[in-house]
Amino acid sequence: MVPVSHGETQEKVKDLSAKWSYVLEDRMRTYFFAGLLALSLTACSTAPQTEARTETDQTRARVDNARESYQKGMQDRLDRVDREIDEERAKAEGRKMNAKAKKAYAARMDDLRKMRTESREKYNEMKNSTENGWERFKDGLDSTADKLDRAWDNFKADMKS
To answer: Could you tell me if residue 61 is inside a domain?
Structure first.
């Protein structure tokens, strides 16, 4: 072993300390930039997902609003026909009709009740359908409700004449 003076030892320790300090700083810089890169890549990859999620949420809200609006309109339409049929039935009780007219009246009212029941059933199917399936029921319900409206309008016209 070679004898080393105290001053030489301190010099070597300083040199080693400076080298390790540089290595540690270099590693810290590397980790910092790697973390910064990972963070920026994560932000880039989530931006399109966030935009897509927002668009999906907006579309779902529009569909929900359209569905609720349609349901309310159809509920009002069916309630109106129900109310008018009930009013007509009450008026008919005070009307004087012969047996043939009563029989024809009863048959037409039965037809209207069946159409009304069918419309209500289709409405309930649509109302209880899934978020995506309600439009499938919409066309059938529109057709049935239109048929009921036409039959009711024809019935009212025939009762006036």
So the answer is: yes
Q: Using alpha carbons only, give the angle 157, 153, 93 rounded to the nearest 5 degrees.
A: 65
Query: Is residue 1 a part of any domain in this protein?
Result: no
The tally of domains found in the chain comes to 1
**What range defines the domain where residue 141 resides?**
10-160
Alpha carbon distance 145, 77 (integer Å): 8
Q: How many other C-beta atoms are found inside a 10 Å radius of the C-beta of residue 145?
A: 22
pLDDT for 57-80, tens place per residue? Answer: 777 778 778 888 888 999 999 999
Q: Is 92 helix (H, G, I), strand (E, B) or coil?
A: helix
pLDDT of 33-48, one tens digit each?
Answer: 566 566 666 655 555 5
Helix, strand, coil content of the chain in percent (nearest 5): 90, 0, 10
Report yes or no on whether pTM surpasses 0.70.
no
* Residue 4 falls inside a structural domain: no
Q: Which residue has the tokens 């006036």?
A: 160
Backbone Cα Rg of the chain = 40
| 145 part of a folded domain | yes
Contact 148, 119 (CB under 8 A): yes
Question: 141 and 123 in contact (C-beta within 8 Å)?
Answer: yes
